[in-house]
Fold each of these.
Amino acid sequence: MATRVTTNPKVSPFGTTPKPGAGSGAWETFSWYFFRVSGVALILLVILHLVIMHVTNDVSSTTYDFVAHRYANPFWRVYDLTLLTLALLHGLNGLRIVCDDYIRTRGTRLAVQSVLFLTAVFFWLMGTMTIITFQPGKTVAASILGLLHH
Amino acid sequence: MPAETSTRVVQVKVKRYQPDQSAKPFWQEYRVEAEGNDRLLDVLNKIKWEQDGTLTYRRSCAHGVCGSDAMRVNGRNRLACKLLVNDLGARISVEPMLGFPVIRDLVVDMDPFFAKYEKIKPYLINDEPEPRTERQQSPEQRERYDETTKCILCGACTGSCPSVWANAEWVGPASIVNAHRFIFDSRDRGGAERLQILSDRTGVWRCRTIFNCSEACPRGIPVTDAIEEVKRAIMYGTTDIA
C-alpha cells in the first residue's frame, strides 16, 4: 500500500471531533441527533396526550370547559407547547430530508423547503399564541389584546 | 457429486440497452442449455459466444475477486460469476444495476462511483516521520477494520441502495465502507478529515439503515454495521467506540 503523505495542516490525529462550522456537517449531524431525541420524546408525549384525551376521558367530555380546566395548570400548557414544538420540528425535518432526497434542482428544492419552513412557523405561532394566551371565556384575540394592554 | 448437475434449458431474460439502435431499453429472452453447476457468467458467455454477439457485459477474473460483473439478477445485485444455475431456477432475469447510468446492456458507468470513492480519500494519511520498519499494529488493531478491507469495489451495495436511487449525489455505501477501512486503522491520521467529509449533506446521514447493501455484498461485509460505526464516530467525535 503506497503511503500518500499529505501536507494539509488541518489533518489532526484520528479520533478528534470534526470541526463544527465547516460545511454542512455539524448541522446535518445535529439534525440527525435531534431526530432521534425528538422521536423518543414524542412517543412518550403523544401516548400520554392520547391517553388523556381519548382513553381516560371520553371524547364527548373533552369540551371547552375540560380544556379550560386543564389549562388552569401551567404544566399542561408547557406540555402542549413542548408537544407542538417537537412534533412540528420533527415533521419539518423529515420533509426537509425527503426534499433533499427527491428534489434534484436546487431552486425548486429551496422553494419547496421555504414553503415548508414558513408553514411550520405559521402553525407554531398559531398554536403557541393559543397555548400561552388562552383564558377561559375569552377569544384568543381578546386574550392577546388583554395581555398587550397590561 | 452434487445432486443436480444435469443439463437443462434455462430461460434468461436480459434487460438490454443498445443506444445506437434504440433510445429505450428493452427486454430480450434467450434459451440456453446449461448445467446445474454452471455459473450465470457461463450462461451469459454461452449467449454471447453462440447466440448473440451483441450482448455486452463486463467480466474479468470470473472468480469473484475483481468485481467487474456485478448486475441485478432476479431483482438482487449479485456477481454473475458467483451464482450457480442450480440456485437460480429455470427463469432468470438479468438487468444492469440500478442507480448507475447505463452505457450498454449490462455495462454501467462506474465513473461517478469512483469519484465518490476518491472523495473519502481512500489511502493512508500519515504525516509522521516514516519508521525504520513497517508501520506496525497489533492483531487486535488490525481486526478492528478487518471486514471493510474485503471490499472489491464492485458497486453491488451502492447499486442496491434506495437512497442512492433517489439521490445520485449521495456518497453511497461502498465509499463509506472504504472510509471505515481507514478511519478505524490505528496507523492512519486522516480519520477526522474523513469524518468531516462524511458528516455533510451527502454523507452518512442519508443512510436509512435499509440493509440492502449488507444483503447485496458478495464479500459478506456487514455494510450497514460499518456505516453505523462511522455515524457513531461522527456523533461521539471518537473512533474509540464499542
Amino acid sequence: MSPLRICTVYPDLLGTYGDSGNGEVLAARARWRDLDVELVAARSSERLPEADLYAIGGGEDGPQVLAAERLAADGGLVEAAKRGAVILAVCAGFQVIGNRFPDAQGQLHQGLGLLDIATAKGTGPRAVGEVAVAVPTESDGGLGLPMLSGFENHGGVTTLGPGVEPLGRVAAGVGNGAGDGSEGAVAGHVLGTYLHGPVLARNAALADLLLAWATGIELEPLDDAGSEDLRRERLGRLSLS
Amino acid sequence: MRLRASVASLAVQGVNRASRLTGKGSGTVAGGRVGLKLDPKLLEDLARGRSTVLVSGTNGKTTTTALLTAALATAGPIATNATGSNMPPGHVAALVGTKASVGACLEVDEAWLPATAAATRPRAVVLLNLSRDQLDRSSEVRMLAERWRGAVASAGVVIANCDDPMVAWAASTAERVVWVAGGLEWKDDAGACPSCRGAITFDELGWRCGSCDLTRPTPTWWLDDRDAVGPSGPVSLTLELPGRFNRSNALVALAAADALGIDPEVAAHAMSSVHDVAGRFNEVVIASTPCRLMLAKNPAGWSALLNVVTEGTAPVVVAINSRTADGADPSWLFDVDFSKLQGRRVVATGDRWRDLSVRLRYAGVVHDAEADSTRAVEVAGTDGDMVEIVGNYTAFRDLLEASA
Ligand SMILES: [Zn+2]
C-alpha cells in the first residue's frame, strides 16, 4: 500500500496563522497509529503534487489573490477534488476554494469553485477572536463532532450556496458572518472553515475525521488528554464547555 | 531652537522631575509624550544639525542598536534609546537635554521608520530584516517594505541586509547602500517578490525572483567561520552575546560603524564588551536557579533563539502568554520549529501553557508543564543545571521581575 500523502498547500503564500500546523497534526496522528505517511509542503513555485489530503491555510490579501491564480493555473487541486481527495481549507484558503472572494479593495476575484460559497468584503469591523462552533449530529445531517474551538481573524463575509452544508453554528464568535449564524462549509470531502488556531491542534476529533476520510479505515483512539484539556479550557473561557 | 521647542523640552524635563531618568538623554518616555503634545515638531528640532543613525527591522534592532552605539561611542558621546522605547516619545526622551553636537543612534519601530526618518534626516539608516510580527495586528509585510522605500531615499547611506528580499527591495531606492550578508532566519514572508509578485527562490548562492530582475545584491560584508570580512579584509569578532544571529547583528553594526568612519578593529573591540541588552540574554537567578533569560517576539525571533538554545544541552523553560502586548492569538506557535528541542529537558509554562504543551506534543518534544512560571524554572533546574528560558513579551517581563 502506498503511503498516505498529506500536502500543505503553498506555505509561502498561505500560512499566516500557523496553518502549516494542520498538516503537521494530521501527519503526526497518522504516524502515531503506525500508518505509513508522507507530509509534503508544496511551495507556490512548484507544481502541486498528487496527495490524499490537502491542507490550505490563511494569508494576507495580496498572497491570497496570487495563490488563487496559481492554483487555478496549476489545476492540480481541482483534479484532486474530482478524484475525491480530502481538502481542508482555512480562512483565506476557505475563501479561495469558493466561487469568488474580495481583495483588500473589495474587488472580487474568481475562486476555484470547489465549494459553493461566495465571499464579499464585510462592512463591519474585522472578525477577530475566539470562536466556538456547535457541529450538528450525524442524524441531523452534520459531522457529529464535539464543539469546535478556534480563533478567527477575517474581514470577509461568506454566503453559502445550495451545494454545501455549514460545518456548524457559531456559539461564540462570528464565523461566516452572513447573518445566519453559520460557520464554515462542507461538501463531500471538502471542508472549509474560518477557524485557525491551528484548528486541528485544538480539535483532535476533526483531525481524525479528515484522516478517516482520507484512509477509509477506522482509526484507533489516541490519548488526547492534553488537547482535550486545551479545547475545554478555550471553550470554558467563552463559558461554553 | 524655536521657542515652542524650548518650552516643550523644558516640559519634558519637568515631567522627569516627577518620574525617573532613563537612557543617556535626560528624558523619559512619559516626558517625551508630553513634549510631543506641546510641540509635534519637537523631534525635528532636537535632531537638527545632529549626526543621527536609525536602526530598524523586525528582529535584532535593540541588540544592533546597542552594539552600534558602543562602536560609535569610541568617537564621542552618543545618545540612544537603550530601553527599547522605539517610537517618537522614546526618541525625544533620548535626545532632550543633549547638545546637537552629540550624535544619536536610535532604534526605530518598523512602522515608524518613515516618519522618524523624515523628522531626523538621518546620516545613516540600518535595515535588518522584515517579517511578520504579532499576528493579529501586523500590517502586510510588503506594505511596510514599500513605505521603507520612501524613507531611505533621502538617507546619506543605507546599511542593508542583502539576504532579505524585502530589505533588498526597500533599500534599492537609496543613493548609497552598503550591502551586508546578515542572514535570514525566516523565509516564509519572502516567497512572493515584493516588486512583481513573482516567486522568489532561495539556494546556497542567495535568492532571486523568477519573474523580474530582483536578485540578492553582492555583499561587501559577510561572516566566515571566525571573522567578519569587510572591504579591507577580515576583522576579528568576539562577542559576549550568544548565538549566530547576534553575530549577524554585530556584522551589520560593524558595517554601519565603518560607513560612519569608525575603524572596524576599534568598533569590533568596543562591541566585544556589550553583554546585556535591555535585560535580554541576561544571566539571572530565579527561585534559586541560575538562568539565562531570553525574549522572542515573533517566529523569526523564536527560530533564532531556539538555535542559541540548541548550541548547549541545558534544560529549557518555554513561557508563553497572550496578554495585550503579546497578541491574543498564539497560533504562531505552529510557525516555530520546536522539534529542535527534542531530547532536551523542557518545561512549558505561561498563561498559554496548554497551547504550548499541545504544540510540543506534535513537535515530538517530551516535556513537563507548570502553570506557574517560577515553579517551572525550579522544576527545570532540579538537577542543579543552569536553565535556558525563552519567553514572549509579558512572560519574559514577568520572569525578569521575578529575578529582581
Ligand atoms: Zn520579481
Amino acid sequence: MTDEATPWSLHPECPDVARLGPDPTIGLLRARGARAMADRDQRTDAWRGGFTRRRFLAGAGAVGVAALGSQLVTARASFGAQAAGGTLVVVFLRGGMDGLSAVVPADDPHLAAARPDIGIPAGTLLQLDRGFGLHPALAPLHDLYARGLFTAVPAVSTPDISRSHFQAQDCLERGGSSAGTAEGWLDRVLDVTGPGTTFRSLTVGTTVTRSLAGDQSAMSLRKVDAFELHAGDADMHARTTQALAALYTGVDHPITLDVAATLDGLGTAAMMSAAGYEPASPYPEGEFGERMKEVARLIKADVGLRVACVDVGGWDTHTDHGNVDDGAVTRQLTDLGATLGAFATDLSDRLGQVNVVVMTEFGRRVEQNASRGTDHGHGAAVLLLGGGLAGGRVHGTWNGLAPEGLDQGDVPGWNDYRDVLSEVLTARLGVGAGDLPTVFPGHQARPIGIMA
Amino acid sequence: MTEQHPDNESGARPWRRRSVLAGLAGTGVGAAALVATRGLSGSDGARSVLPEARSAAARPSDAGGFANRDESYANSSGAEQISAVQEAPPTLLYPTAAEAAAGTAVTVPTILDTSDPVVHLLRRATFGPTPALVDEVHAVGIDAWLATQLQPLTIADPEGDLVWGAFPLASADPAEVQASVGRYRWDAMLDFSAATMARQMWSNRQLYEVMVDFWANHLNAPTPGPGSWDVGGSYQRGVIRTHALGTFTDMLLAAGRHPAMLRYLTATQSTKDSVNENLGRELLELHTVGVSSGYTETDVRNSAYILTGRTVVGQDGPGPESTFRYDPDKHWVGPVTVLDFRHDNATADGGLEVGDAYLRHLAAHPSTAATIARKLAVRFVSDIPPATLVDRLAAAYLDNGTAILPVLDTLFRSAEFWAAVGQKTRRPLENITASVRALGCVPTGDIPHSVGVLHNAAFNAGQRPLGWPAPNGYPDVHAAWRSAGNMVETWNTHRMLVFDWEDGLTRPDPVGLLAGLPSATVGEYVDSLCRRLCFQAFQPAHRDALVAFLGGDPAAPLAPHLAGEDAGQAIALVLDSPYFSLR
C-alpha cells in the first residue's frame, strides 16, 4: 500500500477506512496492517541511512510500537480467494535424510543389490503407490496417507545444490538457486503475501532459520510459555515495555526491529500462556516433539501464523543405518513419524488449513558404504502433510535406480524443489502465479500435481 | 587386488560408472562467489528448466552462492550489511596498537560513544568491560595491557582458578571420567561447558578466553555432544586451550589425532575399504581451506582416504579405552592428491605421517589463511569485515607459520579494528557474561549452583558454551541471532541478576553499584547508571525514557525509588538497552 492509500485515521467511521474493504471491520484491519507495514518500512529505511520517498508517518515512528497496539491485526493484502488462516509449516531435516529409506522403491532390484545390509525388507513396508512403500517407522504417516492427508515426492533437488551440507542447505533456503537470491525464500513469501500479525512467521528455536532471514520481520522463539518478560506485576510490566520501546526508538540498527517484534509478541504470548495448552494427544519426548507442539498451539490460537519453521538434526547417517528394527535411520524416522502423527492428531480438523513440507538438503547415495551407512547424495524425498493434497499417490518423476541413470551414484534431481514448493504456496498461501518468480527468481514453476 | 582407486581420474569400477550427465562443465575457478556474479550452473549451464535430471555440482564452489553460513546470513538483508569502515582512513596499519587507537578517527554512525578506544577494546577483547578493567588499561596503556593478555600464564588468576576448580570433572582425564560417571552420561561434558562459562565471567585472562571460545567453535567438537562423554574435556584442554595462542598447525595436528574429533566426525569408522567422507569433507570445508578454494568431490574423497587408519581404542582394547590409535591395516595406500597436496602415500606404516603432512599443508594454505583471517575479523571487527583487514591478517598468518599471536598483534594495530565501534551485537552468551561482569556479581557459596543457573540461562537462549551441535560452531553474525525468544531470555537474566531470584550470586545494590557516582536525584541516578554499566551517557531521548520510568522528574529525589523495585528495574533496563546490546 502506498502512503496515499494509508488512512491517517483508524476511526471505524472514517470514510478512508471504509473504502479499504467490503465492510468497515475488514477495512480497519487492512488499515492497521498497512500502517504497521509502513512503520516497519520507515524504520527499515531509516537505518539504511536515508529516508525514502515514503512520507514520514507523523507520530507513529517516534512513539514506537506501543502506538500500534500490542497486536498487529491480520490484513490479507493479497485479497486472494484462499480463506485467511492457511499455514505452511516447513520442517527442515538437517544432515541429509535418506529418502530411499523413507519412501522406498520397494520393487527396484538395484536398491536391494546396492544395500545388502541396510535395505528395508519389502515385507515390512507400508504400501504407497507406484511400487513405493513407507518405512514402517513412519506408520503414523501411512494412516494419514489412507485419509488423503499425506503424500511424498521422491528425487527432489535443484541444479545448484552440491554435496556440501552448508552449501546445499544455504542454496535451498535462499530459494534453490545461487543467482540473485540473498534473502531466504520464506522472507520473499512474506513479502508477496503482505502484511499480517506479529506471529505471521515463526522459527521455533533459538536462531533464525536461514529461509526466513531477510528484511521482513520474523519471529523466533523456543517456547510460548518461556516467552514471558519477568518484570513483576502488571504495572511494572507495562512501564518496562514502554521504556524498552522508547530505548530502541531512533536507533540506527536492525536490532530495533527485533525489539519491536519482541514487544509486539509478548502480549499475544501472555494471553496464550494464560490460557495454557493441552495437546489432543501426547507428542514424543524430545526437541522436535516440543517444537511441533508449539506450532500446533500457535495455529490453534489463531494468531495469524502463516509460516512456521522447525529444524531437526541428526540425519547425517554416514554410519549405522541399521536395519528396520534399529539403527540411526529407524530412530530418526520413528521420531519423525510419531511427532508428525501427533501434530496431525493435535490439529484434527484444522489440519485441512495447514500443509507441512518436510525437506532436507540432499538425499543419500544409493549404494551403502562399508560402515553400513550412506554418504551424501543428491535427489531427496519430500514429505507433505495436510489439507488440499492430491492424495493416494506418490507424485513426481521417478525413473528407477539403474546405475546408468544415476547421477554419480546418486538419485538425480528428477523433480525440482521449487516446483513442489510453488504448488503448495499457491494452494495454501494464495501466492499468485505472478508472484512466484519473486519467490523463486529465474525459475518457471511447473505444477507436479501434488495439490488437488 | 590392484589398488586402482575408483575415484582417481583414470579409472572407475563398473558400478561407479559415471552417468552421462555427470561430466560437468563447471565454470567455477574457486573464487569467493557473491550471488550477483553467478548464474545457474547445471551440467550444461542451461538456464531453462529441463525435464531430465540435474546433476549435482562436482565441486561445491561451482554451485555458487556464499562461501559459508555466516557470510550468507550477514548478506541476507540490506539491513544486515553493517560494515565498519565507511571511508578509508589514511593509515591502515600502525606500529603499535596504542598508536592505532589514537590515530584512527571513528566515523561510522553508532550510538556507542566513540571517544574512548579503551572501552571499545574491552568490548571486543573480553567478555565484558568492568570499571576496574577500564581504569587498569588507562593506567598501564593499551600496548602493555595487550602484551600481558597475550601472555596469559603471566597473569595471576585466583578467581578463574577457583571457579574452574569447583568443577573437578572439567579437569578430569578420560580414565578419571570413565571411573566417575556412568557410561555415556553427559556429566563431565556439561561440567566442562559450565566451567568454561565460569572462566569467561571471572577469569583475568580475558583475551585468552575469547580466543579459546573462537577456536572451540572453529574446530567444533560439541561439548556436550556425541562421542565426547569421556574425552570432551581432554579435547578442549589439549587441543583448544593448549594451542589457542600457539599455531593453528599445532592445533590442527592435535585435533587430527584426538578421539573426540575422530568420533564426532565418524573417522573411527572410516577405513580403506569403507571410507566415509565426514571428517575429510569438514576438514576442507570448515576447518581449513573452505569451499572457495575450489576443492572437488574427488578431493573430498581423497582427503578422507589420507586420514584412514586414525581411530580410537574401543572398550576391548588394545590399550586404554578412548585413546588415539593409528591402525596401519585400515590405512588406504597409494598416491593421493588434494588440491595442491600430493603424496605417494606408499606404505601403511607411513600413513600417519602422510596425514600429518597433509594437515600441515592445509594449515599453511593461503585459503586457510583467508578463512581464518575472515572469521577472526568477523569475531573482532564486524559482520561484513573490510577486505583490507582480512587480507592483512591472512598475510600475517602465512608470514608467521600459522602463529596466532602475530595475527592478533596485526589486528590490534589495524585502523579497521579501532574504527568499528558499535558494529557487533552481543550474542546471548556474550550478553549474559557481560551482564555478570558489568554488575560485578560473583558466587557467594555454592559455585556449581550459581554457575549452573547462568549456564542454564545461556542454554535457554541458545548459546551454551561449546554446545553448537554441527561442526560449523555457533553463528557469529547478528542476522542469525534475531530471535525474540533469546531477547526475552536475556532481559529476564538481567532481572534475575539484579533481584537474585535464584540463589548463589551477590546482588548488586543500586547505590553501592555506583561506587561514589552521584545518585541523589533521579537524573543523577540514571546518568550514573549509564556511565557505570555502559561507560557513556545515553542520548537525550533514551535518557528521558529512563527518567520517565522513574517518575519523569530528573530533579526528584531517588530515595523513594529505592524502597521498591524501581531502582533495580532501572539497572535491568540499562542492560536491556541498545547501549549494552551493541558492542
Amino acid sequence: MADLTTDFVGIKSPNPFWLASAPPTDKEYNVRRAFEAGWGGVVWKTLGEEGPPVVNVSGPRYGAIWGADRRLLGLNNIELITDRPLQTNLDEIKRVKADYPDRAVVVSLMVPLDEDAWRKILDRVGETGADGVELNFGCPHGMAERGMGSAVGQVPEYVGQITQWVKKHSDLPCIVKLTPNITDIRQPALAAKQGGADAVSMINTINSITSVNLDAMCPEPMIDGLGTHGGYCGPAVKPIAMNMVAEVARWEKTAGIPISAIGGISTWRDAAEFMALGAGNAQVCTAAMTYGFRIVKEMCSGMSQWMDEKGYTKTSDFIGMATPRVTDWQHLNLDYVTKAEIDQDLCISCGRCFAACEDTSHQAIAMSEDRTFTVKDDECVACNLCVNVCPVEGCITMRRLEPGETDLRTGMTIPAEDDKRTWLEHPNNPMGDPLTCISRGQ
Amino acid sequence: MTHSPQTPGVVAERLQAPALADNFSDLHPPLDAHEAHVAADRCYFCHDAPCMEACPTDIDIPLFIRQIMTGTPEAAAKTILEQNILGGMCARVCPTETLCEEVCVREVAEGEPVQIGRLQRYATDTLMRANVHPFKRAEPTGKRVAVVGAGPAGLSAAHRLAMHGHDVVIYEAKPKPGGLNEYGIATYKTVDDFAAREVDWLMQIGGITMELGKALGSDITLDGLAADFDAVFLGIGLGNTNALGIEGEELGGVVDAVKFIADLRQTDDLTKLPVGRNVVVIGGGMTAIDAAVQSKLLGAENVTLVYRRSQDKMPASEYEQHLAQSKGVHIMSGVAPVSLIGEGHVAAIELAYTDENAKPTGETFTLPADQVFKAIGQVFDEVAGLDTDGRKIKVTGAGRTSRAGVWAGGDCTAGEDLTVVAVSEGRDAAEDIHASLMG
C-alpha cells in the first residue's frame, strides 16, 4: 500500500490533498467536516486585518458553465475574503488545529501593502498553532480594487517586498499564492523566491465572465442589474494551471521552489498530473464545492492504487518526474513522423473525423460509399484532430513511422532514432547554424 | 355492472376507469427540457448522417438535435416541419427502430440510439404548445387544387400547396380529418386528441377548405373534380380489408381490427368499450399488434396473436413484438386459421400449424375465442379511370397517375404504408403539382 503522507515545506499531512483557501474552509464547522472526511489539510479562507470585516454581496456570488448533463465545468465567484471577525477565525483555527494535530492547517492572509499590517496579523496567527501561512496575492475581484489580492500578485516587486516582511516577522513556512492574471507567471514566482518564500501555490482564479444574460443584457452573476468579473476555477482551468506549474518548475531561476498545485483538480488523476509536473501537493476547491467532501476518499484510493500499480511507494517518488519532459517547441524532434490509423473494428462510421479533416484540416481522410473512413498517408500531417474528435476512445491512434520508412506526404526517409533534427538544426530555420543544419532532401 | 378479465363473453368494463386511463396513457412520456438536453448531447452530429438518409422525409436530424441542444427547440421544430409538416405525429408513430434510430451510429456502436423520435416530439411539442405556425402562404396564385382524403398524404400535400399560394379543398369521407392518424393508430401512441390538434394547427397556414363527409365515388367523382379544379391529389388510403375466406367468418364477434382500433380512438369512455375474455388476433403487422395490445389493455384475459409464418418474418418490428409480449400478448407464429366455430357468435378458432412455406402441415388445434380480430391487410378500392399496378394506383415520378392532372400518394400508391412515407409522397406530389401549374 502506497504511502500518501507528504511533507510540504515541513508541513506534514496524511495525504497530499488539501482544501484550498475558499468557502469550504471559511469556518470551523466546515473544516471539521473536511477533516472527518479525510482531507490531509486545509488552507483556511483568507483572513484580513483587524476591524470591521469585509462585506459580501447578498445576491448570487457564483457563475458557472456546464456540460450537457449539467456537469459543472467551470465556476466563478465574486466572493471576497472571510467576512467574519478576525478573532472568531483565529479562535476556531486554534481549536481545530489542537483537535487535528496530524492535519495541515495553513492560514491564508491578505492585508494592505504595509509592513505593520502584516506584522500584526502574523503575530495573531502565530498564536493559533497553525502550520503555515499562505499569502493571497491572487484574488482578482473586489479586493484587487483595494490594492490587494491580484493587484499585488501582478507586481513582482510587491510580491517580493511582502514576502520579505512575512519572513521577517514570522517563523512559519510561507507559501505565496500567485495570480494567473499575468503574462508571465515566472516573474512573480521568482520575486516570491527572492523574497524568501518557502513555496508558491498556483493558480488563483482567473478573471472571467461566465455568461451573459441575454434578456437582461448583463453578465452573470447579476447583482441588481449589474455584473462584475469573477475568479474562474474548476475543471476548465486545469490546463492553464498545469502549464503555469510546469513553467515555474522548469525555469532555472525558479526550479526547485516547492509548488502547491491549485486549479481544477477534481480527481486523483488530476492531482497526480500536477505532481508529476513538479507540485508537492494538491489543493482542491471546486470539486469539493460540487460534490462535497467525500470525494477525497476517491482521491486517496485512486492515487494509492495507481502508485501501487506503478511501484511508487511514496509521493516523492513521482513528484516532478514529468518536469524534464516539458520543453520548448524548438527542441521537438521534427523528424518524428506519425500517421493516423483508424481501427475499422472500433469505427462506428459517424464521420466526424472526415468532417473535421476535410473541412478544417488537411483532407487526409477518405470516405467510401459504405461509410468506411481511411487515412490518406500522403496527406496526413498527424495533427491528431481526428483522434480528438472521434467519439470512440482508441479507435484512431497515431503510429510512429519506423526508421527507413518513407513519409508519403513529404517523401522523406525516416532517419535512425538518434539522428534527429529540431528546429535548431533545420535548414528552413533562418536563424539556424548552417554548419549544424541537417537536410533530408525534401 | 363491473366485470373482470375473467367474465365470459364480450363485455365492457373489465377494468376500472383509473386502470384503463393508466393503460392507455402515453406509451413514451414526453422528454422534459433537461432530459431533452441530455438526450440531444448524445448526438455525434455525424457527417452525411445515416439517420437522415433513413428518414423518408429527409429531415436534417443532426441539425435539429443540435438546435435543441443549444436551447432553440422552436428552430429545431422548424427544421423538422419544413420537411415533414406532420413531424409531431411522426415523432409519435414512426417505427424509428426500423428507420432513423436503427442506423444511428450509437445504435450500431452501443445498442442505444440517440432518442431521435422523442427529441423530435420535444421540438414539435414545444412549437405547437406555443401555437406557433412557422410557415406563411405565398401570394395567391389563383390556382385551385382538390385533395381527396384528409390523411397524412392529403394533409401534407394540401399544406405544401397552400404554402405555395394555391387554394385547396380537401374532401374527406369520414366525419373527422386525419385519416389513420385519427382512426388507425393505437390510442397510447397519440394521446390527448393529438391528431385533431395537429390538423387544426396545420390548417393555420390558411387557404385550405375542409369538406368532411364527402366520399369519392358517391359524393364526388374524379371527373367532377378534374373539371372543377386545376389539379387533383388523391390520398385515399386503403378502403377495404382482406377477408379470411374461411368458414365461420360471418359469426358475431369476428371483426376487422381496423374497426376495433378506430372505435378505441373515437370512444370518449373506455369503460363502455366491450372486449372478449379470449381474444385472438389474426395477422402479423402493426394493426395486429395494436389490436392485440389494446385488447389486453382493455382487460381481456387471454390475447393470442396468430401469424402464419415464423416470427422473424412478422412485418411488425421486433420492438413492437416485444411491446406486445411485455403487455401479456401471446404471440403464436407458424399457425394459420382454418375455421371459426360457434353458434351465431364465435366461440373458438381452429388453427393449423404451418411449415416454413406457411402451408398447413395437417396438424390442427382449437383455441377458445369469443372475439376474433382480422388484421391480415388492407386493400385498395379501385378508382375508375386510373391505371393500377395490380395492387394500387400506378404512379410515376412524384405521384403522377395515368391521368393527366391527377396525382396520388400515401397508402393508395406503392411504397411502405407508413405515415412518414405518406407525408413525403404528399409533399413531393404537391411540389410537382406546383411546378406543373406554374410551369
